[in-house]
Amino acid sequence: MDQAVVTAELPKTPWGFVVKQPPACSLTDVMSEQLAKQLDEENEAFASLNNPVADLLLSDEAPETTSDLMLAKMLQMQFDHEFDEQLRREEKKFNGDSKVSISFENYRMVHPYEDSDSSEDEVDWQDTRDDPYRAGRKRDTPPTEPQQAHKTVRMSQFHVRSLFVCSIPSEKPQTTPRRGFTGKGKNITTKHDAVTCGRKNTARMDNFAPEVHVGDGLGMDLKLSNQVFNALKQHCHSEQRRSARLHEKKEHSTAEQAVDPRTRLLMYKMVNAGVLENINGCISTGKESVVFHANGGSLEEQPVPQEVVLKVYKTTLNEFKNRDRYIKDDYRFIDRFSKLNPRKIIRLWAEKEMHNLSRMKKAEIPCPEVVLLKKHILVMSFIGKDHVPAPKLKDVVLSSEDMKNAFYQVLHVMQQLYQECNLVHADLSEYNMLWHQGKVWLIDVGQSVEPTHPHALEFLFRDCRNVATFFQKRGVSEAMSVYELFNSVSGLNVPVGEEEAEFISEIVALEKRNEDHVQRRGKKTFPVSSDDGSPPLQPDCDD
Ligand code: ADP
Ligand code: MG
Prior knowledge:
single chain; 543 residues; alpha+beta; five-stranded antiparallel beta sheet; 19 helices; 45% helix; elongated; binds adenosine-5'-diphosphate; binds magnesium ion
């Protein structure tokens, strides 16, 4: 029966009865519905995208994170804001307190108009970016809708700031429009208005260097007169300059006991490179140099003496100023001297000592052997043993026999120096001669000059006086007089009269004659015979 009813309602086919399905929805419909829903959701999400950073900061709810696009935009926005903040800091650092400042505004990611409301009252963005009044200013004028989010962020920054200042200023200094005044009739206020200027000056204190403590005046309605503000600014500048000077001095000078960081670095490099094994300590600090003891390593597979000294020429220039005359008239250095800055001249001193020592070594004069020259550091062999430097001739106690022996050694060394090395020590005394293994060793030859130097003979005379006086005081009867010593060393026959002044004037006249020869014939035209038939002064010899 039932079967018959069903049969009557359903159309019959050869395969049986077909069950009628409800009409199916088209694929296009399904897709468009899904799309509409998705767009709807996205729209909701985008409604709060004006400042996602602010929203993120302010809302308690978890942010919508299902849309990748939105996440990307949020991150980009956050990045842009951070970039701008950084740019602002860089700009501030770059401009400092300079009266003329460079604006980085064009490089900002977020346009100032999007980021700030400064356009509303013709306020220059640059002038007011650090204005403490800026954030508080709009409290009475509600911000427009799109600015709401930014405003909130800035307000929160301001509140953090106001923890450090006393109170939120009640009034912002009025910025004067371009026409130079505000108001009408009697109520005209110009940009020179004391109150406006005073407030502006207070706000500007914020631009002082961070190390200048401006107190909590920024938070109050302070009005600084131009005079006070200028005095503060002046003080701030001079403080900065002073601290920079102090810093510079500390960094660049070789202090009494220590060395400056650059020199230290050079010394460490020598240890790192294996030239030195270690640097042990300071032997002497003089006016012009600091001498360190060190253990030698190896240099280009050549062994460095076991014990060496590092003579570090001081990089403070004061002392060297007095000694210019030793180097600027030395023909070996004259061309370079004029072209160099004072710091490089100090290196020249080290180089000069190296050349002089090399010459002396060739003539087999007992002296330190040069190991290495690095800028203003000269490494040479150590005269002494087991970290104990050889005593200076002035400090050593010798028998009369040894003292006599020492005198003859010094005489011989002075002659060798003049005649074989073509050098005058120019600072020879018992302070620059060491007594080691029964021999006199010469050191400190940085200032030594060639006999062609315009003052070489005067320097030689001074050396002779030091030597003669020392040995005479030590009771060496064989010690010559200063005049005899001078003639014996130089081979000149300067007549010995009654007065020292006469002798010196003879020397000066000789120097003058040599100088004239040099001028006439050029610096390399020696030998020049002196007119009185004394031996020629030797030309420059190669190191
Ligand atoms: P300054 O120009 O400061 O007088 P010196 O070259 O005279 O420099 O060195 C200062 C001191 O350092 C010397 O008096 C000496 O005691 C020590 N000294 C210098 N060079 C050596 C060396 N090669 N070996 C041992 N001691 C040295
Ligand atoms: Mg010395």
